[in-house]
Amino acid sequence: MTGEDIHSRLQAIFRDVFDNDTLVVTRATTVGDIPDWDSLAQINLVVAIEKDFEIKVSLEDLETLSNVGDMMDLIRTSVTP
Amino acid sequence: MNEYELADVSVGMTQEFSVTVTTGMAAGFVEISGDANPLHVDKHYAGDKGFRDRVVHGMLTSAFYSTLVGVYLPGKYCLLQGIKVTFHQPVFAGDELKVRGEVTHVSEALRVMTVRGSITNQHGDTVSKAQIQVGFI
Known about the structure:
The structure holds 2 protein chains of 2 kinds. Chain A is mainly alpha-helical. Chain A has helices spanning 3-17, 39-53, 59-63, 68-78. Chain B is of the alpha+beta class. The A-B interface holds A 40, 43-44, 46-47, 50-51, 56-59, 61-62 and B 81-82, 105, 107-110, 112, 114, 133, 135.
């Protein structure tokens, strides 16, 4: 799976979770860039990532997620080649 | 009331219960919500629109999803985080509903699970479906 594939699917997840069809995220996008990105939204994002990419996120993984780039890296290292 | 904790649940686990909708429930929901739309309170109006009786509020029947997770799956330790509901058939007072939930996803790290809910009537028709996200406290 390419970085572009991951970004495309991740962006679709963000648009669904935040109910915003025009939302654009980059590797640098953080909590501060999306007003509705609160703790429950974070749960919704990670649950959606687990389902969409069929991966399991650990407690340790959660603590490393500070921006979209971190999420993309976690997905890349977690998905089965 | 069930008392399932996160370690007790797994994908595929199910729970269900039955409930009969009464006119008293419908009247109570009008009082609680203030939704006195004639489709819900005026039998003649509902008949003119093609329904055999007043239609029970979809949000009333959706309250049974709260019961599903708050009492049955997982029960005591439930923290309801969100529900997406769709309505497929009308419900009328007197209908006997079966409310069913199946665990479709469990995230140990987040202490969250997803439940696929459905409600069917006494004829076997699916009246609503739901995706329910539940946290554990």
